[in-house]
Amino acid sequence: MKKITNIGVFTSGGDAPGMNAAIRAVVRTAIYENIQVTGIYRGYQGMIEADFVDMNRRSVSSIIQKGGTVLKSARCLEFKTKEGRQQAYDNIKAHGIDALVAIGGDGTFTGADLFSKEFDIPVMCIPGTIDNDLYGSDYTLGYDTANNTVIEAIDKIRDTASSHSRVFFVEVMGRDSGCIALNAGVGGGAEAILMPEVDTGITELFGELELAESRNKSSMIVIIAEGDQNGGAYNVAKIVKDKFDHLDIKVSILGHLQRGGSPSSFDRVLATRMGFKAVKELMNGNSRATVGLRGTAIVTTPLEEALSKKEFKLDEELLAIANIMNK
Amino acid sequence: MKKITNIGVFTSGGDAPGMNAAIRAVVRTAIYENIQVTGIYRGYQGMIEADFVDMNRRSVSSIIQKGGTVLKSARCLEFKTKEGRQQAYDNIKAHGIDALVAIGGDGTFTGADLFSKEFDIPVMCIPGTIDNDLYGSDYTLGYDTANNTVIEAIDKIRDTASSHSRVFFVEVMGRDSGCIALNAGVGGGAEAILMPEVDTGITELFGELELAESRNKSSMIVIIAEGDQNGGAYNVAKIVKDKFDHLDIKVSILGHLQRGGSPSSFDRVLATRMGFKAVKELMNGNSRATVGLRGTAIVTTPLEEALSKKEFKLDEELLAIANIMNK
Amino acid sequence: MKKITNIGVFTSGGDAPGMNAAIRAVVRTAIYENIQVTGIYRGYQGMIEADFVDMNRRSVSSIIQKGGTVLKSARCLEFKTKEGRQQAYDNIKAHGIDALVAIGGDGTFTGADLFSKEFDIPVMCIPGTIDNDLYGSDYTLGYDTANNTVIEAIDKIRDTASSHSRVFFVEVMGRDSGCIALNAGVGGGAEAILMPEVDTGITELFGELELAESRNKSSMIVIIAEGDQNGGAYNVAKIVKDKFDHLDIKVSILGHLQRGGSPSSFDRVLATRMGFKAVKELMNGNSRATVGLRGTAIVTTPLEEALSKKEFKLDEELLAIANIMNK
Amino acid sequence: MKKITNIGVFTSGGDAPGMNAAIRAVVRTAIYENIQVTGIYRGYQGMIEADFVDMNRRSVSSIIQKGGTVLKSARCLEFKTKEGRQQAYDNIKAHGIDALVAIGGDGTFTGADLFSKEFDIPVMCIPGTIDNDLYGSDYTLGYDTANNTVIEAIDKIRDTASSHSRVFFVEVMGRDSGCIALNAGVGGGAEAILMPEVDTGITELFGELELAESRNKSSMIVIIAEGDQNGGAYNVAKIVKDKFDHLDIKVSILGHLQRGGSPSSFDRVLATRMGFKAVKELMNGNSRATVGLRGTAIVTTPLEEALSKKEFKLDEELLAIANIMNK
């Protein structure tokens, strides 16, 4: 097995709090192990454009607490072409990079897997996305921080909702994943939660609202994942308003502030452990795998498995609990 | 002048952080002065329904840090009728209330003024609204807290915006007031700010964006007050997208979370001073006036003056500064 | 097995964020299952004084986001006596309480175990302490929130430390546990971490400081668990000052603010799941057990086992990582 | 009057949130006016060591939200000597700096005044200190942020205090100034407040505590400015414990976290206005003056006046209010 001398690290896809902490851990672990580190800007785009920076311990000072990613991120269509990937490979080869750590989500991992196979370059992947929708880790980087951001928003909305006896439809992120909706919904004490994985009919929602009214709750907060079948919050609000005309209904789309913010302690530590593990695994000859948290341990999963399998991240029991807490 | 024996306190109109701190101050000051205090729920609606509660020091324990209003708030059309007001008066008279402290905005003050004249009952008004759009006080209750909420949101959005080189159109509250937009825009380091009071043409905005691009800023954040002439953030985003098709544009509507949250130190202290002053003024025979902050002093302004005059709350100099900071 | 009709719930020992969320979950789950719930104030003291309150769904409205415990907590020497426990039993019997949910730490569990055996009353325990020093759960209630509180404090201290090139000795809670010190230390990017479980000699610390100096770091932050062998932060600071007289050294004792604050999303959801589980287990005839989080599942552990066993909660790997991140 | 071509900006003395926002405003305003800006590191020390950096718009990107100061700060004894100042002058002259903006407190202003007179170099001062103890401005930079930091800490301490019916003695910053103690004390709903400017005898404090006890308050929080005559919190706690042995007393020294943190909206806007004004005044030939906030206007005060006069920043009325709120 060839000794690794220069690791290229990059972030790709949607940014998530904790990515900087992961970059920091990759850089400091590698340097501690006398391996050089090259920062690749804007993910695959930066590879194709040879947008590189040599990193040292100082390059990652005081970034552990920063949201976003200092290496930037970008979508890159060109990398989907053989020519694009060839260009990328020529660049990293020319720069002496002989291994990669990719931080991102599904698309990032798919590209890394393909690239690694085509050019036989070792790669380890770190799951970074607030959606928590990746196989191989109980929690993805940024998910915990996003949940905290959402419950803080719900707490604020609850203040005004209960002052005015209003019904709020709060849309949270999650095109295909209800993780934030369910967890932040339970954490925020929502009266109802709509998410893609669970087919909550509108009539069911009507029931929840009637029940809450019958208990003359001073306010109601309905959390809706953006990917829910009933459409976004605006749509659901409209349907409800048509039936419950007397209700004072408001809509709140939390949007991209869910992606930012200083990472939580949980995400900072998780990112640090994942970055450390990714480098160690590369040194041990592991490749085409993701690092992840299982219980309290950092484990690895072959990319092939991680990309082919899906895990239902919504705790069945928590779904039942959510229904009981507000009944 | 008749000695006051029972003060009725209520909140009306949109809630704002600091209202609870003001209620607490009214209650504790009055009781300290051996005056009874009656809490009136849901503003004028509660007056008409005689929805009262006798308050003591304990009724306001641990509410100084709470957003919203423990006395609730509501719109009340009935109070606009002579019959409604007569009913309200009969109720407060029956309950022994001989003076009022009204906490709220424009509409609240108008009703208080009319009611006070019709039934010759002393009333003092406390300006509580995040919009800071009232005459007679440099700052209204909740405005400082709302500004902090907005810059925290902008800071989070900036994380993700700069990671992706995106342009964000962030809509903040302010139907007729650009106070939050301007202050939070300057505080958040926005690239451009659109507000009702200033007629920023779209072409001007185009210029700002071109300039920012020419400086290849990694991200741009445009703050838009909901009441801006160019329409809300969605509308402006659409217009800009038509002209700058290459830009990666996102929209964020902060919405009602701006109304909630634990009040800032500034708002807690201001509310406490205003509540104290309102009671003292009633004791001194003052009526039909608002309390407000001028410089570092708490002053009063006759309701007639407060309701008839408008003050341009946007510091002219700050408008100029906003344009320089990002040029 | 006797059907349970009335569950007494109480908090005891040091309070922790998430206790209210757990109380809420116990109450709402029990009522949903047609079981009455009695709130017992001030833990065992309240049992002895029959300081009870019948709880309904409304009793726990809007407490999920509150720090501390609405049922209060207290130390109780009297409960260590047979007479005290007899009195407590007579009271709960008289009130119709036929099962208990105890929320707290080591001492709370010991008392619950003894009480349950003596009077053959079913009891389930929920681990609530910021120290994360209990066997049977990967995380205890309040630990995640405390970690966030500490890293926020460290981030603030870092601002001023780096502005002045200062060395800070920050003391965090943990008499016998270094969990907060290690996790918040890693999360806060501390230059060194001292904790009870790891015998870091002062000379070793000197080495760390010399190394950091040799890298002319603009600032250094040393985290010290209150229970560390080298004594608290003041003591360590004095020893270091004697050797490194040129350093600008400051001490910060974070103290009890670590115990308070609105619980994190993680703690709110964990508390809700634990409270639900505790009631379900009592219904299923389980007793003398603790509920806990293992991986992503809520499990139970016999009290006997939980009280006799110790688990080393400091991830060995994380200890190594901590040393690498700042080298 | 000589046209200014190169402004040297520096921070000195204790750092305060908002200093970075002020630096940013100075840099961007000057560049907008085609004036060069030189950053001087570590205040007067950097002047003597010619530790300079040429600044452009980009040098101050994304620092408006950062606590501390990117230009660092330091104490400098050498500057108190004629030789030191001569060296400093030779350096700035050699670098082409022909005007200065000094951001800091009393000591910083004194040095600036002396230096400006000795070498006839124009200087404007910006009041940056969390203590709010400078003449010429209603608020100093960082004061508002510090107040928010302190009330957040008090809110957290209140959670645990009320859960355990404890008495907390919380020490806040302010060697000669009770501004933070009074404002945060009122904002945090403290039962008693001790500050240097007000001679509150211990017996008076005993009275407050007895009163609070007589009302069987579930908890008591006493705020103590570090400069209070009765000594720090530890000392006062000891004295109280001797008399009220039955009380469960805890001490919390908030310490340096009060100096850090992201500046509040109020401080960011104030800093931006002050930085803008300082440059404008230099351009208009003004010198040896401080900028400050009076009401809603940014004004200037001659350094001579600012340094000779003292203003009692504790609002007399607020002192009375503090006593009423908890009686």
What does this structure look like?
4 copies of one chain form a homotetramer. Chain A has 327 residues and is α/β, with parallel strands linked by helices. Chain A folds into 2 domains: 6-142 and 263-308, Rossmann fold; 143-260, Rossmann fold (3-Layer(aba) Sandwich), CATH 3.40.50.460. Chain A is 43% helix and 18% strand. Chain A has helices at 19-32, 43-48, 82-95, 106-119, 143-164, 179-188, 202-214, 233-243, 265-283, 303-308, 316-325; strands spanning 6-11, 36-40, 52-55, 99-104, 123-127, 167-172, 192-194, 220-225, 249-253, 289-294, 297-302. In chain A, the strands form 2 sheets. Chain A has a 7-stranded mixed beta sheet, with helices on both faces. In chain A, strands 7-8-6-9 form a 4-stranded parallel beta sheet, sandwiched between helices. In chain A, helix 1 (19-32) runs parallel beside helix 9 (265-283) and helix 6 runs parallel beside helix 11. The mean pLDDT of chain A is 95. Chains A and C meet through helix 1, helix 5, helix 6, helix 9 and helix 11 of A and helix 1, helix 5, helix 6, helix 9 and helix 11 of C. Chains A, B, C, D: ATP binds at residues 14, 75-76, 105-108.
